[in-house]
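Researcher: I'm comparing several assemblies side by side, and this is the next one on my list. It has 229 residues spread over two chains. Same procedure as the others: predict the full complex and return the structure.
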Amino acid sequence: GAVVSQHPSRVICKSGTSVKIECRSLDFQATTMFWYRQFPKQSLMLMATSNEGSKATYEQGVEKDKFLINHASLTLSTLTVTSAHPEDSSFYICSAREGTSGLYTQYFGPGTRLTVL
Amino acid sequence: SQQGEEDPQALSIQEGENATMNCSYKTSINNLQWYRQNSGRGLVHLILIRSNEREKHSGRLRVTLDTSKKSSSLLITASRAADTASYFCATASGDSSYKLIFGSGTRLLVRP
């Protein structure tokens, strides 16, 4: 089956620093990738939709300058949390949609736990 | 934004019993999907049901969809301790982004 990886799986950083999270589709080309955040014991909240070669579409309330998304290739999307603060601590999950089949199926990465001190 | 609510929020059952989780949503959909998430892990896709389908089976899973009531249910039969996880429904709408909007989730505990 389709596999999506995320790196790093865990990151701890100091307040004010920037953190980059990578999302890769390992065995398929992902024309669209999605970024979610999840607080403890809560649901996934969609942050943005990322299409290869174009600007990401952010959901209402998500600061695009705070959460920079780059989808430079069909297998890689990155989320950079800029000037991170403790309230950005969360579980970030990406997913990828295969462009040619599985029209409505998204494959999820294992998530990245971000802790900002 | 969150599409809808799931109930119950938490469910504790004995191994071997059936578990039923319900999901309600607000807008028209193309399909509804159910996912499982083990604690601190990513999501595993369980089953997809299209808006023109009423029921679907996959192994011990049975999903129903009632578009008139904008609701769906997930039944896990003969539950096992390994089924312990959080279960989320997610809806896909008709726009070209195919984005999923997740429900609030049900935390299932299956006691051995």
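Model: For your comparison table: Chain B has a mean pLDDT of 90.
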